[in-house]
Every structure is written in structure tokens, then in C-alpha cells.
Specification:
581 residues; alpha+beta; 7-stranded mixed β-sheet; 6-stranded mixed β-sheet; 15 helices; ABC_ATPase_put; ATPase; ABC_ATPase_C
């Protein structure tokens, strides 16, 4: 293995050479405190940046044993180090030539604390994957600048970002404790028959729709009404003692209130409560059931082989809805398909905001029932199925509902939001519903499915993905709201629980992996999801990474987002199989 001095001199000697001569530095190098691997060299200064890997032994890093032997603590410390490396790298940035010259980057994290492939830490050491822009002027190598970048700046990242003695130990301790407290809170939900918990003092508003950081000024912190103290529940944490807050019970819950009073903000916090968050996020002790899925209408999406018959039936032309497909779903059809797909993936809690829902999917009031008879309306509104969904499948639903009081009659709990504060108004809502002599007629039958017949389930066929060139896997491109597999673009805007573009890249790799190993006619989609997630649990994100370059730009996702992305493939091919959910 060559050393730092050899690399530095080699780079200086390349000054003024053509950019392609950088290819000769690919390989492994021994530095005093770490090893450097140059794994990929870009073709020119404007191309995708070069990729390097740093390996630091624990003899150098010297992290406490308690943080590198516990799997959860490893996740937190790796997340913390990712943020620290990003900060140090940003401080070292300087102009060093054309294009991406001189840039050092790591996959930048969101507010969520999740596993990523950028940093791994264990009892042996730390591995960090970075991208660097090898410097050039035009297409001529800036060798001296490259020597400073790789031989001076990178060691500073190790010294200031990866050695325990240089880091804020108290801050890291807080990261670990915040993560462990959130895990403890989430683990108590099921035994307390809750699906979500929002603590007193939480800061739920965000800076904007595209900035997930907490609102810095003027935010109303979440409180419980002091005049009704029994509205709160107390949960235990290992580091913060008892935490009091609003516990949302299993069943059917409505969140009501006037406009701009915090209904959707509360639902958004519950939606994001499937993730743990960094200290100071304001939602770091707001938790929800891990199998919580947000649904919305998504006009124009494709649907392949979904049994939407519990919600949409008797289609014109005697068309079956047991194995329904379309390339251009309406709002109501897309929401019905999304709901069944969530059940297929194993969801236990559904979240719906009326602002992003199809009106005719949610409700058919008594006046419309009087004008259009049921035999002329294929859609069974969700109001008549939401109770059955819980009774038959144990799936709870939380709905933001500001425009229809008809849901009062099917709700177990009604929460009223006023000035971002919550109070329980279930008794008042029930009284109003019972006092109405002209209630609408239920159209949903007795069970969620007709006569209790199980939903049809799907298997994904292996030729569901567009082919790549020359027999290769399709090329992957990722943005936070969409991915491209070959020529096929998948719109992800409606999958609101994706928080990072790195998750999108990981989902794309997982789809390619599933196609290679698990898409087949006798395996249900649910079973495929099981297999993929189990492989990741055993082997990490690298287990499904079909890109041999190991770019370090993957982040952990849930089975629900993987399922949703697969279901939105316009090239998806499915068949029904005789297995029940």
C-alpha cells in the first residue's frame, strides 16, 4: 500500500496533465491516522465527482465501547458523525478550479436520525464514504490543488470530524439519549393501546413546506388544557423520566377545528413520528406507530391489479374492480388503490387529511344520497368503511376533518385544535351527531369486504421493470419527489413519508434487487417486501445496492415507501394469487 507522501508527490507531478491521467491515482493509501481508498475517478471536472473511502481504526478514533457495541447507539453515532463530517467539509471548501473542483461532500442528512451508507461505526473502526471534485483548470489537472485537497484537507476531516477527542462528548450523549427516549416512547404505544404520542412542549410547526427545521420564532408550543388534566397520558423514558402528553388511542380519530389552527400541522408531526429526530428538532419525543402510512388522492397515477372492490364496485360496463388496473386513475380511485396497497404492505395506522383527499372518496352526504341512488354510485365512501377497517383488520385511522361533521358518528375520539392547542371533544361531537334526526344512510354493508371475503393479493412479475442497455440493470436517477429507472419515471410526490433523496436512491436500488431475486409469480408483494427488508436487516443497505461503486448515498427506508414506489411503476405487471393478507 502506497503512503500519503507518495500520493502527494504523484499529484504534484500531474500538474498540467490531461484530466484522464487522474485515473492513475485509483487505489489504496496509508496515512498516519487512517487509510484512504480512491475508488472511482471522474472523467472530467464537470462529471459526477470522484469517490473516496476513509477507514479509521478505533485505536485512533477511540470511541467509548458502550457506543460502538449497541446497534441503536451505532446508528445514532454514525448519524452524528455524518453531520459532523458535513460541517467540517463545508468549512474546508474553497475555489480550486473548474466545475466541481475542490468540493468535498457527504450524503447530507435530514432532521431524521436513520441508518445511512455514508458512515459506519463499530468496535473495529469507522468507515466514511465521500465524494470529491478532483481539481482542474479546464481539462488540465491542477495537481498542487489536488495534493492539498487529498493530503491536507481530508486528514483535517479525520482529525476534526472522526476522532472522539475532538468532538463534543456531551452533545453526542444527548443525541444517543434523545434517540433512546424516542424508542422507549414508541415501544410503549401498543401496550397502552395508543397509535401516537405528542408531548407537552413539542414544537410542531416547521420553517416552511420545504424546510423541515423547527419554526424558530413565534411558534406555539404544544400544550394540554390545564382545566382537564386527565386528557394527558404519561409515558416512561430512560433519560427524561416520565413524559406527559397527548396520547392518540387506537381506533378512529378525528382532528377538527377552524382553518389555520394547527390540524394539518399536528397530522404532519404524527406522519413524521415514524422517525426519530435530532435533539432540538421540536418533534424529538413525538412518536407514532412504526406502521403508520399517510394516504392522499393522486390523480393520474397508474394502478396495477389492485382489489379496490371494498371501496369501488359495480363499475360501468360490468368492469371488475377485484383486479383493477388503469394508467390514469381519478382522485377517488387513486386513494382507494393507495389504501388497499397500504393494507397489502402491512399498515396498522392510516393518516388522511381532507385537504389532500378526494371529496367523493371521503363522504356522500344525505342530499346526494337522495339525488343519486346507491345503485348508480360505484364509490362506497370511506366514512362507511373506516369503522370496518378497524373492526375487521385492526387498522386505525386518524383523519383531519374540518368540513364534514358526519364523521362524528363513526369516531372513537375527536380532538379539537384551537391556536395549535388540543382538547378532547368526543362527548360533544357524539351528542351533536345523535341529535341530528336526518342522518345519512350507511352504504358500507357489514364487513370491509363483501361477505368478509379476503382481499385479492398480488404478485409482481420479474419483467415489470424497463430493460437497461446491453442487458444491464436500468440506469437510476433520484430526486426527493421522483426516481427514474431507465426510461421509466416514478412520481413520488404523494409518498409524503420519504424525508431524504438518499432514501429514494436506496428504494430504487431495492427495486432492482427485488427484480433480480424476488419478483416471481408465486410470491406475493408482501412476501417480497419481507425478503428485501430482512436482507437489509442482515447485511445493511449495501446488501441491496446494485451499484458496484458503493457511492455512500443510501438511507434507510420503510417497506411502505418501497411498496408505494413499486406500485407506481407504469411498467408494473402483476397477477392475483390465492393468499390472504
Amino acid at each position: 500500500m502506497k503512503d500519503r507522501q507518495w500520493l502527494k508527490q504523484r499529484l504534484i507531478d500531474l500538474e498540467g496533465h490531461g484530466y484522464g491521467d487522474y485515473k492513475g491515482i485509483k487505489g489504496d493509501y496509508r496515512f498516519p491516522a487512517f487509510n484512504l481508498s480512491v475508488d472511482y475517478v471522474q472523467g472530467d471536472p464537470f462529471a459526477a465527482p470522484s469517490r473516496i473511502c476513509l477507514q479509521v481504526s478505533q485505536e485512533v478514533a477511540k470511541f467509548p465501547v458502550r457506543w460502538i457495541t449497541d446497534y441503536a447507539a451505532q446508528t445514532v453515532i454514525a448519524d452524528y458523525l455524518t453531520r459532523q463530517v458535513a460541517q467540517v467539509a463545508q468549512s474546508l471548501q474553497q475555489e480550486r478550479g473548474s466545475g466541481k473542483s475542490g468540493k468535498i461532500k457527504i450524503a447530507a442528512p435530514s432532521q431524521a436520525v436513520i441508518r445511512r451508507s455514508a458512515v459506519w461505526i463499530d468496535s473495529d473502526g469507522i468507515e466514511v464514504r465521500l465524494t470529491v471534485g478532483l481539481p482542474a483548470w479546464g481539462r488540465r489537472i491542477a495537481g498542487k490543488a489536488a495534493a492539498a485537497l487529498l493530503c491536507d484537507d481530508i486528514p483535517q476531516i479525520v482529525t476534526n470530524g472522526l476522532q472522539y477527542s475532538a468532538l463534543d462528548a456531551a452533545r453526542m450523549e444527548r443525541y444517543v439519549q434523545t434517540f433512546q427516549d424516542a424508542e422507549a416512547l414508541r415501544n410503549q404505544l401498543t401496550q397502552r393501546e395508543l397509535v401516537a404520542f405528542i408531548p407537552e412542549g413539542a414544537c410542531l410547526p416547521r420553517q416552511s413546506g420545504v424546510d423541515e427545521r423547527p419554526l424558530a420564532r413565534g411558534a406555539d408550543l404544544f400544550t394540554l388544557p390545564s382545566e382537564i388534566p386527565d386528557e394527558g397520558v404519561e409515558l416512561d423514558t430512560p433519560h427524561s423520566g416520565k413524559v406527559k402528553g397527548l396520547g392518540i388511542k387506537a381506533g378512529v380519530t378525528l382532528i377538527v377545528g377552524g382553518g389555520y389552527h394547527g390540524k394539518s400541522t399536528l397530522l404532519k408531526a404524527i406522519e413524521q413520528g415514524v422517525y426519530n429526530h435530532v435533539p432540538g428538532d421540536g418533534r424529538d419525543r413525538t412518536v407514532s406507530h412504526p406502521d403508520t402510512v399517510k394516504l392522499r388522492a393522486e390523480e393520474g397515477r397508474s394502478v396495477s391489479g389492485v382489489d379496490i372492490s371494498p371501496l369501488i364496485n359495480r363499475l360501468p360496463g360490468a368492469r371488475s374492480s377485484k383486479n383493477f388496473s388503469t394508467t390514469n386513475a381519478s382522485g377517488s380511485t387513486s386513494q382507494a388503490a393507495g389504501l388497499i396497497e397500504a393494507i397489502e404492505a402491512g399498515a396498522k395506522v392510516l393518516l388522511i387529511d381532507e385537504d389532500t383527499a378526494a371529496t367523493n372518496f371521503m363522504i356522500r352526504d344525505r342530499n346526494m344520497q337522495a339525488l343519486i341512488s346507491k345503485d348508480k354510485e360505484p364509490i362506497t365512501p370511506f366514512i362507511d368503511k373506516v369503522r370496518q377497517l378497524y373492526d375487521d383488520y385492526g387498522i386505525s385511522t386518524i383523519l383531519v376533518m374540518g368540513g364534514s361533521g358526519d364523521y362524528f358518528s363513526v369516531a372513537d375520539t375527536v380532538i379539537a385544535m384551537e391556536n395549535y392547542q388540543a382538547r378532547i371533544v368526543t362527548e360533544q361531537a357524539k351528542a351533536i351527531a345523535q341529535a341530528d334526526p336526518n342522518q345519512r344512510q350507511s352504504e358500507g354493508g357489514i364487513n370491509f369486504t363483501k361477505q368478509g371475503i379476503p382481499l385479492a393479493v398480488r404478485a409482481v412479475l420479474p419483467d415489470s421493470l424497463p430493460p437497461g442497455r446491453n442487458g444491464r440493470s436500468p440506469k437510476v436517477k433520484a430526486q426527493k419527489d421522483k426516481m427514474t429507472l431507465g426510461y421509466e419515471e416514478i412520481d413520488l410526490r404523494a409518498i409524503e413519508q420519504i424525508v431524504e433523496v438518499h432514501q429514494v436512491r436506496a428504494i430504487a436500488q431495492a427495486i432492482l434487487y427485488a427484480q433480480r431475486y424476488y419478483f416471481e409469480s408465486n410470491r406475493t408483494l408482501s412476501e417480497t417486501l419481507d425478503c428485501v427488508m430482512e436482507d437489509i436487516e442482515r447485511g445493511g443497505l449495501d446488501a441491496v445496492d446494485q451499484d458496484e461503486r458503493r457511492l455512500g448515498d443510501l438511507a434507510m427506508f420503510r417497506r411502505f415507501e418501497l411498496s408505494a414506489a413499486i406500485s407506481r411503476l407504469r411498467t408494473l405487471k402483476t397477477i392475483s394469487v390465492t393468499k390472504a393478507y
